[in-house]
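Notes, p. 3: input format for complexes.
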Amino acid sequence: MQEGLVIRTTGSWYRVLLADGGQLDCRLRGNYRLRGNKQTNPVAVGDHVEFERQDDGTGVIHEVQDRRNYIVRRATKLSKQTHVIAANIDLLCIVATLGLPRTSTGFIDRLLVTAEAYHIPACIIFNKCDLLVDEELRSIQDELSTLYRNVGYPVLEVSALKGTGLDAVKEMIAGKTVLFSGHSGVGKSALLNAISPGLGLKVGQISDWSLKGKHTTTFAEIFPVQLSTFNFPN
Ligand SMILES: Nc1nc2c(ncn2[C@@H]2O[C@H](COP(=O)(O)OP(=O)(O)OP(=O)(O)O)[C@@H](O)[C@H]2O)c(=O)[nH]1
Ligand SMILES: [Mg+2]
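Output follows (234 residues plus guanosine-5'-triphosphate):
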């Protein structure tokens, strides 16, 4: 039996990252028992699994190791069933924007409460700061940043588009497994691309009529990122 990290889940296939950097597509052992029936997915990104290689070049997951923590989303508001978005997270980065789309403080607060409940450190990244073109928006941003800093959360102001504030993001996430979460269209994919240009993630459009994103990224995935925050003299 070998161990690996689940970095992507699609249907009944799980992409597993191996210790040597290789990847293997695995399925779950047929008679795998779900822990209770509350969760719709038995395996999530971030899970550490034990698997066995098959002759056909794929793998079979036999065990999912205990999770240090995990974060869930309810299927619907009333539903008892939950979907595990990710497991074993070191940091939750809540990506928010003041405009296009506008993130409400209610939304930020709900994510913060979730993070607290699951014992996951959280920070807030305000993206699209290049759009703070007038005094009024600037002062709303200052107020919000001060508010969340005062209650103890790190707050970063960045622009994925202009590339400002990225070093602070890199410093914050270095060496960690980080979940970027936030409304569609706030620029999660754009921000990851800006931090790690090799990723080439698809970036969506903001709808002209609803001023919201179009759910371009449809599933969670882990990207091993090589961060070059520090330049060593050679
Ligand atoms: N002005 C400005 N636009 C940005 C910035 N970052 C991203 N955008 C734009 O915002 C839109 C949405 O960006 P995405 O990266 O696709 O957003 P997302 O959060 O990944 O959205 P989903 O995958 O749908 O959840 C695109 O049109 C980006 O070009 C920024 O810093 N400034
Ligand atoms: Mg996206």
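The first strand starts at residue 2 and ends at 10.
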